[in-house]
Amino acid sequence: MASVVKNALKAIKEKGLGTFFRELKEEGYTKCLLDGNLFQESPLQELPQGYTRISNCCLKFSNLRPDDLNSKSHGLRQTKIHNLGGKVVGVDKFGNKYYENLNAQYGRHRWVEYAEKGRYNASQVPPEWHGWLHFITDHTGDELLMLKPKRYGLEHKQNFSGEGDEYIYHSKGHALNPGQRSWTRYQPWEPTKA
Question: How far is 18 from 162, CA to CA, in rounded Å?
Protein backbone atom coordinates (compact mmCIF):
# COMPACT_ATOMS: atom_id res chain seq x y z
CA MET A 1 0.00 0.00 0.00
CA ALA A 2 2.86 2.40 0.82
CA SER A 3 4.42 1.89 -2.61
CA VAL A 4 1.07 2.69 -4.28
CA VAL A 5 0.85 5.97 -2.38
CA LYS A 6 4.49 6.83 -3.20
CA ASN A 7 3.90 6.12 -6.90
CA ALA A 8 0.71 8.20 -6.88
CA LEU A 9 2.48 11.15 -5.23
CA LYS A 10 5.36 10.84 -7.69
CA ALA A 11 2.91 10.89 -10.62
CA ILE A 12 1.10 13.91 -9.17
CA LYS A 13 4.41 15.74 -8.76
CA GLU A 14 5.52 14.97 -12.33
CA LYS A 15 2.23 15.44 -14.20
CA GLY A 16 0.25 17.77 -11.97
CA LEU A 17 -2.93 17.00 -10.07
CA GLY A 18 -5.34 17.78 -12.94
CA THR A 19 -3.49 15.59 -15.45
CA PHE A 20 -3.23 12.79 -12.89
CA PHE A 21 -7.00 12.70 -12.33
CA ARG A 22 -7.72 13.07 -16.07
CA GLU A 23 -5.61 9.98 -16.81
CA LEU A 24 -7.32 8.04 -14.02
CA LYS A 25 -10.69 8.97 -15.50
CA GLU A 26 -9.63 7.93 -19.02
CA GLU A 27 -8.48 4.55 -17.72
CA GLY A 28 -11.80 4.01 -15.95
CA TYR A 29 -10.51 4.13 -12.41
CA THR A 30 -12.71 7.03 -11.36
CA LYS A 31 -15.99 5.63 -12.64
CA CYS A 32 -17.18 5.32 -9.06
CA LEU A 33 -16.58 9.04 -8.53
CA LEU A 34 -19.15 10.11 -11.12
CA ASP A 35 -22.29 8.90 -9.33
CA GLY A 36 -23.10 10.77 -6.12
CA ASN A 37 -25.26 7.91 -4.85
CA LEU A 38 -22.23 5.68 -4.52
CA PHE A 39 -20.88 7.88 -1.77
CA GLN A 40 -23.80 7.37 0.54
CA GLU A 41 -23.32 4.77 3.21
CA SER A 42 -24.27 1.61 1.37
CA PRO A 43 -22.83 -1.88 1.58
CA LEU A 44 -20.23 -2.81 -1.01
CA GLN A 45 -22.52 -5.51 -2.43
CA GLU A 46 -25.17 -3.00 -3.57
CA LEU A 47 -23.04 -1.31 -6.23
CA PRO A 48 -24.70 -0.99 -9.66
CA GLN A 49 -23.41 -3.26 -12.40
CA GLY A 50 -20.25 -1.92 -14.05
CA TYR A 51 -19.18 0.11 -11.04
CA THR A 52 -16.31 -0.89 -8.81
CA ARG A 53 -14.61 0.76 -5.91
CA ILE A 54 -11.00 1.69 -6.58
CA SER A 55 -9.84 1.00 -3.04
CA ASN A 56 -10.58 2.13 0.47
CA CYS A 57 -9.20 5.56 -0.37
CA CYS A 58 -12.43 6.23 -2.29
CA LEU A 59 -14.33 5.91 0.96
CA LYS A 60 -12.69 9.14 2.17
CA PHE A 61 -14.92 10.99 -0.29
CA SER A 62 -18.06 9.51 1.28
CA ASN A 63 -19.71 12.86 1.97
CA LEU A 64 -18.40 14.74 -1.06
CA ARG A 65 -21.00 16.64 -3.04
CA PRO A 66 -20.41 19.04 -5.95
CA ASP A 67 -21.41 21.98 -3.71
CA ASP A 68 -18.70 21.05 -1.22
CA LEU A 69 -15.81 21.19 -3.70
CA ASN A 70 -14.92 24.79 -2.88
CA SER A 71 -14.80 24.16 0.85
CA LYS A 72 -12.81 20.95 0.38
CA SER A 73 -10.28 22.64 -1.91
CA HIS A 74 -9.94 25.49 0.59
CA GLY A 75 -8.85 22.94 3.20
CA LEU A 76 -6.47 21.32 0.71
CA ARG A 77 -4.45 24.52 0.51
CA GLN A 78 -3.43 24.10 4.14
CA THR A 79 -2.33 20.47 3.82
CA LYS A 80 1.02 18.89 3.11
CA ILE A 81 0.03 17.86 -0.46
CA HIS A 82 0.04 21.54 -1.40
CA ASN A 83 3.67 21.78 -0.37
CA LEU A 84 4.93 19.08 -2.75
CA GLY A 85 8.07 20.28 -4.45
CA GLY A 86 8.46 23.25 -2.14
CA LYS A 87 11.58 23.84 -0.09
CA VAL A 88 11.24 25.18 3.45
CA VAL A 89 13.03 28.53 3.47
CA GLY A 90 12.40 29.42 7.08
CA VAL A 91 10.15 29.47 10.11
CA ASP A 92 9.10 32.62 11.96
CA LYS A 93 8.56 33.19 15.67
CA PHE A 94 4.86 32.27 15.38
CA GLY A 95 5.68 28.85 13.90
CA ASN A 96 4.61 29.70 10.33
CA LYS A 97 6.60 27.86 7.66
CA TYR A 98 7.66 29.63 4.47
CA TYR A 99 8.11 27.65 1.25
CA GLU A 100 9.61 28.35 -2.15
CA ASN A 101 9.43 26.28 -5.34
CA LEU A 102 11.52 27.80 -8.12
CA ASN A 103 10.03 25.40 -10.69
CA ALA A 104 6.53 26.82 -10.18
CA GLN A 105 4.98 29.78 -12.01
CA TYR A 106 6.51 33.13 -11.05
CA GLY A 107 4.31 34.92 -8.55
CA ARG A 108 3.02 31.63 -7.17
CA HIS A 109 6.30 30.11 -6.08
CA ARG A 110 6.39 31.50 -2.52
CA TRP A 111 3.81 30.68 0.10
CA VAL A 112 3.24 30.35 3.82
CA GLU A 113 1.78 27.49 5.84
CA TYR A 114 0.28 29.00 8.99
CA ALA A 115 0.94 27.40 12.35
CA GLU A 116 -2.75 27.54 13.28
CA LYS A 117 -4.51 25.59 10.54
CA GLY A 118 -8.07 26.50 11.46
CA ARG A 119 -7.66 30.16 12.40
CA TYR A 120 -5.20 31.99 10.23
CA ASN A 121 -4.96 35.65 9.41
CA ALA A 122 -2.63 37.62 7.18
CA SER A 123 -1.54 39.67 10.19
CA GLN A 124 0.16 36.53 11.55
CA VAL A 125 2.97 37.14 9.04
CA PRO A 126 5.62 39.40 10.63
CA PRO A 127 6.91 42.38 8.59
CA GLU A 128 10.31 40.82 7.89
CA TRP A 129 8.64 37.82 6.19
CA HIS A 130 5.96 39.95 4.49
CA GLY A 131 8.59 41.55 2.26
CA TRP A 132 9.94 38.18 1.15
CA LEU A 133 6.48 36.67 0.66
CA HIS A 134 5.29 39.55 -1.56
CA PHE A 135 8.50 39.77 -3.64
CA ILE A 136 9.54 43.13 -2.19
CA THR A 137 12.92 41.65 -1.29
CA ASP A 138 14.78 38.43 -1.92
CA HIS A 139 16.18 38.39 1.62
CA THR A 140 14.36 35.96 3.88
CA GLY A 141 12.90 37.08 7.17
CA ASP A 142 15.76 35.52 9.11
CA GLU A 143 18.30 37.55 7.13
CA LEU A 144 16.33 40.76 7.63
CA LEU A 145 16.05 40.17 11.37
CA MET A 146 19.83 40.21 11.63
CA LEU A 147 19.99 43.54 9.76
CA LYS A 148 17.18 45.20 11.75
CA PRO A 149 18.43 47.82 14.24
CA LYS A 150 17.42 47.11 17.83
CA ARG A 151 16.12 50.63 18.41
CA TYR A 152 13.23 49.94 16.03
CA GLY A 153 12.45 46.82 17.97
CA LEU A 154 8.69 47.03 18.45
CA GLU A 155 7.44 43.48 18.70
CA HIS A 156 5.01 42.46 15.94
CA LYS A 157 1.66 41.20 17.19
CA GLN A 158 -1.07 39.59 15.16
CA ASN A 159 -4.40 41.37 14.72
CA PHE A 160 -6.89 40.12 17.29
CA SER A 161 -9.97 41.78 15.75
CA GLY A 162 -13.08 39.83 16.54
CA GLU A 163 -11.43 38.10 19.50
CA GLY A 164 -13.21 40.07 22.23
CA ASP A 165 -13.66 43.64 23.45
CA GLU A 166 -10.15 43.86 24.91
CA TYR A 167 -8.62 43.39 21.45
CA ILE A 168 -10.98 45.54 19.39
CA TYR A 169 -9.73 49.04 18.66
CA HIS A 170 -12.10 51.79 19.77
CA SER A 171 -11.23 55.32 18.70
CA LYS A 172 -11.05 58.04 21.29
CA GLY A 173 -14.53 59.21 22.09
CA HIS A 174 -16.07 55.80 21.45
CA ALA A 175 -18.53 54.77 24.16
CA LEU A 176 -16.60 51.55 24.83
CA ASN A 177 -13.20 53.27 25.08
CA PRO A 178 -12.34 53.60 28.80
CA GLY A 179 -10.22 56.74 28.25
CA GLN A 180 -11.18 60.32 29.06
CA ARG A 181 -13.64 62.09 26.79
CA SER A 182 -12.76 65.61 27.90
CA TRP A 183 -11.17 66.64 24.61
CA THR A 184 -12.91 69.12 22.34
CA ARG A 185 -14.57 67.56 19.33
CA TYR A 186 -13.68 70.42 16.99
CA GLN A 187 -11.97 73.75 16.97
CA PRO A 188 -14.40 76.48 15.98
CA TRP A 189 -13.28 78.84 13.25
CA GLU A 190 -12.89 82.44 14.27
CA PRO A 191 -12.21 84.89 11.47
CA THR A 192 -9.45 87.38 12.11
CA LYS A 193 -10.46 91.01 12.29
CA ALA A 194 -8.60 93.33 9.96
Answer: 38
Sequence-separated (6 or more) residues with CB below 8 Å from residue 142? 90, 128
Which pTM does this prediction carry?
0.42
Helix, strand, coil distribution of the chain in percent, nearest 5: 40, 5, 55
Per-residue pLDDT tens digits for 139-171: 888 887 777 666 666 677 776 666 665 666 667
Alpha helices, DSSP H only, in the chain? 2-15, 17-26, 69-76, 127-133, 141-147
Distance from C-alpha of 145 to C-alpha of 162, rounded to nearest angstrom: 30
What is the per-residue pLDDT across 133-142, written as a single tens digit (0 to 9) for each? 999 888 888 8
Rounded distance between C-alpha atoms, residue 3 and residue 100, angstroms = 27
Of 93, 107, 32, residue with least CA distance to 64: 32
Provide the 3-class DSSP secondary structure of residue 100: strand
Q: The dihedral of CA 7, 13, 17, 19: what is its sign?
A: negative
Q: Is the dihedral of CA 51, 69, 130, 118 positive or negative?
A: negative
